[in-house]
Amino acid sequence: MKTFVALLRGINVGGKNILPMNEFRALLTSLGCEDVATYIQSGNAVFRSKSDAAELSESLAARINSKFGFRPAVMLLPAADFVAIADANPFESDEVDAKFLHIWFLREPAKNVNRSRLQKVAAVGEEFELTKSAFYLCAPNGIGRSKLAADVERCLGVQATARNCRTVGKIGELLDALV
């Protein structure tokens, strides 16, 4: 069995796309996943599965749509890929609070990046870095005030889902517990 991390986009935000985590766990289990664990209400899960990632991602989105009436974007990453992305964070340090560090997990590598727009909308003090699988942002004034955070997908031209580094760390702890 392979270990995966599922990141659902836009779940339980502002009273929309409501998906209780007990239902999320039950859906994953019904798809043959084992050792399912979730973290907070924003659609984060770790589990083991024999299924192909693309097939499982599609099946999960379809089941959520069938049962709850919306089809979320599902990012399904092998555990090793998730850990590699988390470990590659160029801004991780003891001097920066993890709540100000964010990672956008990219569905695919960004090919048509609008770098001038990224630079233009970045606030003073914000730093970012793009790799083939992630966009990292240090937003010391918070993500809620960041014009860059609001514009990342448009600038990159790919679908992505963001998590702050506190959440990424907690997901990592769930993965460690599966070992």
Textual characterization of the structure:
A hairpin with a 4-residue loop joins strand 2 and strand 3. It contains 6 helices and 8 strands, in the order βαββαβαβαββαβα. The mean pLDDT is 95. The chain has helices at 21-30, 53-68, 79-87, 115-121, 147-156, 165-178, and strands at residues 2-8, 34-39, 44-49, 74-78, 101-106, 127-130, 134-138, 160-164. The protein has 2 domains: 2-81, SP0830-like domains (Alpha-Beta Plaits, 2-Layer Sandwich); 83-175. The protein starts with a strand and ends with a helix. The chain has a 4-stranded antiparallel sheet with strand order 2-3-1-4, sandwiched between helices. A 4-stranded antiparallel sheet has the order 6-7-5-8. By secondary structure, the protein is an alpha+beta fold. It is globular.
List its traits:
single chain, 179 residues, alpha+beta, Alpha-Beta Plaits, 2 domains, four-stranded antiparallel beta sheet, 8 strands
Q: What best-fitting shape do the alpha-carbon axes yield? A: globular
Mean pLDDT: 95
Whole-Å distance between the termini? 12 Å
What fraction of residues sit in β-strands?
A: 15-25%
Helix content: 25-40%
Q: Please state the CA-atom Rg, rounded to the nearest Å.
A: 16 Å
* Stretches with pLDDT under 50, minimum 5 residues: none
Q: Give the helices and strands as they follow along the chain.
A: EHEEHEHEHEEHEH
Strand ordering within the main sheet = 2-3-1-4
Number of helices, counting only DSSP H or I runs of 4 residues or more? 6
Number of extended strands: 8
Work out the count of structural domains. Answer: 2
Class based on secondary structure composition and strand pairing: alpha+beta
Q: What profile does the largest beta sheet have? A: 4 strands, antiparallel
